[in-house]
C-alpha cells in the first residue's frame, strides 16, 4: 500500500529532475541523491508491508516513509509556486508557457529579464530548496539506519526455511482461506439458475476439453457454487476422476502440479519423490495418468491467466468431454484462460434470497416467523446494506445469532462494517487480497473512490477526469489520457472492485462501490493519510485534527464549512463538496480556499440555486488547479484571474438554464480538455488544441468559431435560443472536427437542420442526437454515417417513413425515436434491416397506427420500449421482448438545457 504513494512521488521527482536539470544545478544533484535513496528504500517496502500486521516497528517505519514521500512532493510544488509568484502574470505571447508540468518555471528562468534583485531572489529560493532537500535526505538516511539497527530488513525478508509462515497473521489467514473440496455447505441459498446453467455446460455433449470460468467479486460465492457443481450426483457419475486445487496469488507451479496429482489420487510414488521431479517431469507424469480418461478439475482462486497456462500442457484433450472449472475475481482471467472458455459472471443475491440466507444463519430457519417484529425490521435494513453479497450476509447472520436484545442489534447496525470486520478475519483478508493485487496506479485510483459518500452513484466521466487531474493516469505516447483512464476504470471493473450502476447510450454512465469495499478503501486511505472525510454526523470521521497530513478532503456535512476548512491541511491537493446546502456558502466566502495553494481538484455539486454574482477574483491564485467544478451554482460570469489557471483541464459550470460568458482571452487556458456549461457570447477557443469536450455552446457563438484547430474535440453539444427569424443549422463547421465521436444539437422551434450529408467526413462519429426539424434523411445514410452506433431523433417531423433508410445503418445498436419524429402513420422494417440493433425506443406519437416488421429484421433486438397506452399494433414476435432500463436513454444535461 505504501508503495503506491512512494512510486507516485518518485515518478513526480523524476519528471521534475528531467525538466528542470539546467535550472537546479547543484540542488539538482542533491535531489537526485534523494531520489536514489528513496528508490533503495522502495526495494524493502513490498516485503515490509506483508509483515506490518505482526510488527509495530515495521508499521512505524512504513508510516515514516509515507510522510517523507508527501514532504518531497511538497518541496517540488513549493519550488514551482515560489518562482511562479515572482513571474509577471501578463507574459508576452512569445513567452507564454506552451504546456507541460513545469513550464512556468522554465519560462521564468530562460525568458525573464535578469536583474540583480531577481538573481538575488532566485539564489534565496535555491538555497532554501537545497536546505529542505538536505533535511529530507537526513530523514531518509535515519530511516535506513533504523532498518539496520532494529533488524527490520531481516524481519521483512524471513523465509520459510527460517520461520514457519503459518505463525504469522498473514500465513494463518492464507491457510484458512485455502478452500478444500470435501467441506461442503449443507444448504446453499440462491444460485439455482447459475448452477443449472453451468451444470448443463458440464454435462453437454461437447467432446473437446473446455474451460468453464466463474468470476465475480470476492465473497460472492464462486467457490461455493463450484463445490455445489463438483458434488452434484450427475457430475460424480460422469467424471470418475475429479480433482480440486486452490491456487492463490503466490502459487508455485511444481507445488501446484503435485497437489493436483494427489487430489486426483493417481500418485504411485511418495511425495518426496515427486518433490525431486522437475516441472516438465511432473507435467509428463500427470499427462500420462490422465490420457484417455474422462476427468474434471476445479482450479479455485486464480489471479493470473498464466496460472492455467503454466499447467494446461499436463491436461490432455482426449476428445472425451473432460472439463476444467476456474474461479477467479478477474474478468480477463475468466475470459482468456483457454481457446474454448465459457465465462460466467456470478450475480449478487436478490433481496428475497439475501433475506432467506440471513434468516438461516441468524434464526436457524428460512422465514423467521417467530422472531420479534422490530428485530426483523432491523435485520431487513442491515440485509439491504449488504447489497446481495453472501459473505457479508453470512458473517452478519452469525454475529446477530448470538444477540437477542434489540439494543444489541441497533449497535451492530450503527457500525455494521466495523462489526463484520471484527467478527470475522475472513472479511478483511478476503477483500484486501483484491486491493493488494493492484499495481500502484490502480491502488491510488481505487483509494480515490472512498471520497464518495456511501451508496453514491458516481458519474464515470467525472471520475475519469478527477483521476487525470490528480496525476494518477500516466501519459502514454499516441494515447489520450482519457483513454488510459478508461482502461484503468475497466480494469477495476474487471477485477470486481467497481460495480456498474447505469448504462446510457451504450456507455457506462454511473458506477458505485460495494459498501464493504468502500469501507476497505477508507481504512487503507486513512492509514496512508491519503484522504479525510468530514461529516458532522460521524464524529470519528469529522475530527479536524486528523487532517494534519491528509492530502484530500471530502465534505459531506458541516454546520460551518468555512471553519472546518480553516483547520484543514494547507497542503491539500483535492477538496470535494457533497453538501449542496453549503456549496454556495463556500463559493461566496471563497477567500478561505486561497490558503490551499497546491489544490489540483476543487469540486462543488450545488443544488440548482443561482448565484448572480461573479466568482471570487482570488481563484487565480490556485495555479495548480486542474479541475474546477462549479456545477449547478449558476455563476453568470467568471473573473479574468481565472486565466492564470494555465494548468486547468476541466471547467464545469453547467447550471440548468443559466448561461455563462467566459473571459475574452480564454484561449490562454491551453491545457483545457473539458469545457462544460451553457456558453454564450464570444468564445475564443479556436486554439485550444487539447479540448475534447465542449458542452454546451450557443449556435451563434459556435458559428463564429474556426474549428480547424480543435483537432482533438470528441464531444460537441450545440443549442439554439428562441429568436424571431427562422434559421437553418448546417453541419459544414462540424465536419472540420477530425476526431468527433459524439454530436448533440438541440434547435429551438422554428429552426431546422440542413442535410446530414456533410457528416460523411466525420469518420469517428458514433453517437448522434438531433432535436429539431430535420424533415428528410439522406438516401445514402449508410454511406454518410457508416460507424453510427447510437441515434436520437426528436421533433424531426420526417415526411417519409425513416425505417427503410435507418435500417441500412450497418453499426446502429441503439435507436431512440422521440416525440414527433415522423409525420406519417405507418412504419415498415424491411427484411434483414437493422442487422446490429439491440435497443429500440419509440416515443409517444399519436399519429402512428401500424408497424410492420418483415422476417429477418432486427435479429439482435433485446430491448424494446413503447409508449404507455399506445394503440400502435406491435408485431407478434416482438411482444415478448422486455423493455430496456430507462437509464439506457437518459440524455443527461441535454434534457436540462432550459
TrEMBL record:
The UniProt record lists the Disease resistance protein winged helix domain at 451-521
Q: Tell me the ranges covered by the Disease resistance N-terminal domain, including all copies.
A: 5-87
Domain NB-ARC per the UniProt entry, residue ranges: 192-366
Q: Which GO terms describe its biological process?
A: defense response to other organism
Q: Please, which domain of life does this record's source organism belong to? A: Eukaryota
Q: Which Pfam families match?
A: LRR_14 (PF23598), NB-ARC (PF00931), Rx_N (PF18052), WHD_DRP (PF23559)
Q: Which Gene3D superfamilies does this one have?
A: 1.20.5.4130, Helical domain of apoptotic protease-activating factors, P-loop containing nucleotide triphosphate hydrolases, Ribonuclease Inhibitor, Winged helix-like DNA-binding domain superfamily/Winged helix DNA-binding domain
Instruction: Please list the GO terms describing molecular function.
Output: ADP binding
Which UniProt keywords are given for this protein, alphabetically ordered?
Nucleotide-binding, Plant defense, Repeat
> What protein name does the entry list?
Uncharacterized protein
Amino acid at each position: 500500500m505504501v508503495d503506491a504513494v512512494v512510486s507516485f512521488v518518485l515518478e513526480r521527482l523524476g519528471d521534475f529532475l528531467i525538466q528542470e536539470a539546467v535550472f537546479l544545478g547543484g540542488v539538482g544533484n542533491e535531489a537526485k541523491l534523494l531520489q536514489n535513496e528513496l528508490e533503495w528504500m522502495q526495494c524493502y517496502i513490498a516485503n515490509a508491508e506483508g509483515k506490518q500486521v505482526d510488527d509495530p516497528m515495521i508499521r512505524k517505519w512504513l508510516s515514516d516513509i509515507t510522510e517523507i514521500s508527501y514532504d518531497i512532493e511538497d518541496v517540488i510544488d513549493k519550488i514551482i509556486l515560489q518562482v511562479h509568484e515572482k513571474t509577471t502574470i501578463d507574459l508576452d505571447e512569445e513567452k507564454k508557457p506552451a504546456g507541460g508540468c513545469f513550464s512556468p518555471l522554465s519560462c521564468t528562468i530562460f525568458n525573464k529579464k535578469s536583474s540583480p534583485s531577481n538573481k538575488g531572489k532566485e539564489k534565496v529560493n535555491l538555497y532554501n530548496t537545497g536546505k529542505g532537500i538536505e533535511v529530507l535526505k537526513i530523514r531518509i538516511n535515519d530511516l535506513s539506519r533504523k532498518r539496520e539497527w532494529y533488524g527490520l530488513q531481516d524481519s521483512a525478508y524471513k523465509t520459510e526455511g527460517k520461520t514457519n509462515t503459518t505463525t504469522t497473521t498473514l500465513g494463518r489467514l492464507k491457510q484458512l482461506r485455502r478452500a478444500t473440496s470435501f467441506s461442503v455447505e449443507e444448504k446453499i441459498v440462491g444460485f439455482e439458475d447459475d448452477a443449472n446453467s453451468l451444470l448443463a455446460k458440464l454435462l453437454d455433449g461437447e467432446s473437446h476439453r473446455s474451460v468453464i470460468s466463474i468470476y465475480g467479486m470476492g465473497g460472492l460465492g464462486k467457490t461455493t457454487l463450484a463445490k455445489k457443481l463438483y458434488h452434484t450426483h450427475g457430475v460424480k457419475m460422469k467424471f470418475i476422476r475429479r480433482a480440486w486445487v486452490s491456487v492463490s496469488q503466490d502459487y508455485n507451479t511444481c507445488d501446484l502440479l503435485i497437489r493436483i496429482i494427489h487430489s486426483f489420487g493417481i500418485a504411485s510414488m511418495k511425495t518426496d519423490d515427486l518433490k525431486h521431479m522437475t516441472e516438465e517431469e511432473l507435467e509428463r507424469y500427470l499427462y500420462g495418468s490422465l490420457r484417455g480418461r474422462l476427468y474434471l478439475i476445479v482450479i479455485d482462486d486464480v489471479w493470473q491467466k498464466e496460472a492455467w497456462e503454466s499447467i494446461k500442457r499436463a491436461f490432455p484433450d482426449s476428445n472425451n468431454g473432460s472439463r476444467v472449472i476456474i474461479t477467479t475475481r478477474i474478468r480477463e482471467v475468466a475470459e482468456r484462460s483457454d481457446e474454448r472458455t465459457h465465462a460466467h459472471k456470478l450475480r449478487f443475491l436478490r433481496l428475497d434470497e439475501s433475506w432467506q440466507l440471513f434468516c438461516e444463519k441468524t434464526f436457524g430457519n428460512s422465514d423467521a416467523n417467530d422472531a420479534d417484529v422490530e428485530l426483523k425490521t432491523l435485520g431487513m435494513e442491515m440485509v439491504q446494506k449488504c447489497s446481495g453479497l453472501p459473505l457479508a450476509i453470512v458473517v452478519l447472520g452469525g454475529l446477530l445469532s448470538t444477540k437477542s436484545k434489540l439494543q444489541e442489534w441497533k449497535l451492530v447496525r450503527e457500525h455494521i462494517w466495523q462489526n463484520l470486520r471484527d467478527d470475522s478475519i475472513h472479511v478483511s483478508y478476503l477483500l484486501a487480497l483484491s486491493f493488494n493485487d493492484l499495481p500502484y496506479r490502480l491502488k491510488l485510483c481505487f483509494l480515490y473512490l472512498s471520497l464518495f459518500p456511501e451508496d453514491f452513484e458516481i458519474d464515470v466521466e467525472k471520475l475519469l477526469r478527477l483521476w487525470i487531474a490528480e496525476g494518477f493516469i500516466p501519459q502514454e505516447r499516441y494515447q489520450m489520457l482519457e483513454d488510459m483512464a478508461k482502461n484503468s476504470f475497466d480494469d477495476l471493473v474487471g477485477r470486481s472492485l467497481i460495480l456498474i450502476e447505469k448504462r446510457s447510450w451504450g456507455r457506462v454512465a454511473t458506477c458505485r462501490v460495494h459498501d464493504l469495499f468502500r469501507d476497505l478503501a477508507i481504512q487503507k486511505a486513512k492509514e496512508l493519510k491519503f484522504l479525510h472525510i468530514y461529516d458532522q454526523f460521524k464524529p470519528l470521521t469529522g475530527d479536524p485534527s486528523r487532517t494534519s497530513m491528509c492530502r484530500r478532503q471530502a465534505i459531506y456535512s458541516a454546520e460551518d464549512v468555512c471553519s472546518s476548512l480553516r483547520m484543514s491541511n494547507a497542503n491539500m491537493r483535492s477538496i470535494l463538496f457533497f453538501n449542496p446546502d453549503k456549496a454556495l456558502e463556500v463559493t461566496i466566502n471563497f477567500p478561505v480556499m486561497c490558503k490551499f495553494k497546491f489544490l489540483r481538484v476543487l469540486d462543488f455539486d450545488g443544488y440548482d440555486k443561482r448565484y448572480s454574482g461573479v466568482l471570487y477574483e482570488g481563484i487565480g491564485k490556485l495555479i495548480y488547479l486542474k479541475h474546477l467544478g462549479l456545477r449547478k451554482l449558476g455563476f453568470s460570469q467568471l473573473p479574468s484571474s481565472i486565466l492564470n489557471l494555465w494548468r486547468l483541464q476541466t471547467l464545469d459550470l453547467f447550471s440548468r438554464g443559466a448561461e455563462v460568458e467566459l473571459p475574452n482571452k480564454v484561449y490562454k487556458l491551453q491545457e483545457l480538455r473539458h469545457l462544460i456549461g451553457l456558453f454564450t457570447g464570444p468564445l475564443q477557443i479556436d486554439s485550444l488544441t487539447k479540448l475534447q469536450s465542449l458542452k454546451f455552446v450557443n449556435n451563434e457563438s459556435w458559428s463564429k468559431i474556426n474549428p480547424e484547430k480543435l483537432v482533438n474535440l470528441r464531444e460537441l453539444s450545440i443549442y439554439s435560443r428562441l429568436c424571431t427569424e427562422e434559421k437553418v443549422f448546417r453541419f459544414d463547421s462540424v465536419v472540420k472536427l477530425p476526431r468527433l465521436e459524439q454530436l448533440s444539437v438541440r434547435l429551438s422551434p422554428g429552426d431546422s437542420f440542413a442535410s446530414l450529408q456533410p457528416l460523411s467526413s466525420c469518420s469517428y462519429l458514433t453517437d448522434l442526437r438531433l432535436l429539431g426539424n430535420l424533415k428528410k434523411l439522406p438516401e445514402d445514410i449508410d454511406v454518410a454515417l457508416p460507424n453510427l452506433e447510437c441515434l436520437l431523433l426528436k421533433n424531426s417531423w420526417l415526411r417519409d417513413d425513416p425505417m427503410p433508410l435507418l435500417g441500412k445503418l450497418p453499426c446502429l445498436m441503439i435507436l431512440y425515436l422521440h416525440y414527433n419524429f415522423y409525420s406519417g402513420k405507418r412504419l415498415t422494417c424491411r427484411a434483414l434491416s437493422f442487422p446490429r440493433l439491440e435497443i429500440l425506443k419509440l416515443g409517444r406519437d399519436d399519429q402512428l397506427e401500424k408497424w410492420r416488421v418483415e422476417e429477418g429484421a432486427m435479429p439482435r433486438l433485446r430491448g424494446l420500449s413503447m409508449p404507455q397506452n399506445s394503440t400502435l399494433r406491435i408485431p407478434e414476435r416482438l411482444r415478448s421482448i422486455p423493455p430496456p432500463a430507462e437509464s439506457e436513454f437518459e440524455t443527461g444535461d441535454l434534457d436540462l438545457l432550459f
